[in-house]
Amino acid sequence: MKDIISNINKVFESRVRLGIMSVLMVNDSYDFNSLKEALDVTDGNLASHLKALEERGLIIVNKQFIGRKPNTSYSVTDLGAKSFQQHLKALENLLRAN
Amino acid sequence: MESNINSAEDLKRIRKIMEESSRFLSLSGLSGVFAGSFAIAGALVAYFLILNNGNIHYDEYFRSLSVKETVTLRWQLVSDALAVLILSGISAFFFSLRKAKREGKKFWTPVSKRLFINLLIPLATGGLFILILLFQNHVQLIVPGLLIFYGLALVNAGKFTFGEIFYLGLLEITTGLISSLLPSFGIWFWIFGFGILHIVYGIVMYRKYER
Questions:
Q1: Which residues of chain A are within 8 Å of residue B111 when distances are taken between CB atoms?
Q2: DSSP H helices in chain A
Q3: Interface contact A86, partner B, CB < 8 A
């Protein structure tokens, strides 16, 4: 039981962060606006959660210009993918254990 | 107990987001039914109007003529096929847009763009290749070529929409390969591959996901 709990990652204890990670796990990269639409959240809310994930090295930010418009997209890092998978596994185990 | 419910809900939500953000699910079965009907209509136009009630047996007859003599006939067949393609494309867009709107989903997303590109690369390659075949007088390979390249396009696109598209692609490829062995029956393989398969697929998908 202790093992299960230790794998539950506090960083992911937020709907928005779970959502961001879910999208990025199955897509090579995703831009800010599409992410916002996919998760149905506000700019500020999304930005702060993205920042938190970025600071922990779980996702990386790619800034580029498409024409003259700046475009910011996000991808998971290896660490991010690994942590999220562990977190999912822990969630599943928790369900099974109860 | 509460954490139990939460984690179940979280897992469900995660799966849903993963699926919705990686697959375009607004494709409607109705567009399959329409595409199939247009394909059959196009085949009838070709048979009765362009090929003179089937009296112009297109593969053998064509090959015995010089390129010049058949140019008009070729362009008529190309326009007929293009009309089928364009009408099918329009109906696919129309029904998908309608379905997306009805479900409150965005139509133009990173996934639908990826779906489009992955569909278009084999399709455009096939289209150009077949135009070349037509003007190099390999008329008997045109229907097999269309079916095979279209099938490859669907297999390629299957990763970005309903998984069933992948299997429809395999069926189109198989139909194309068989039709290349029976060159005189091109028009029947066209009717089966582009007509009947699409209609059956469309009905199955409509009943499975949209009712």
A1: 27
A2: 2-7, 15-26, 32-39, 43-55, 78-97
A3: no
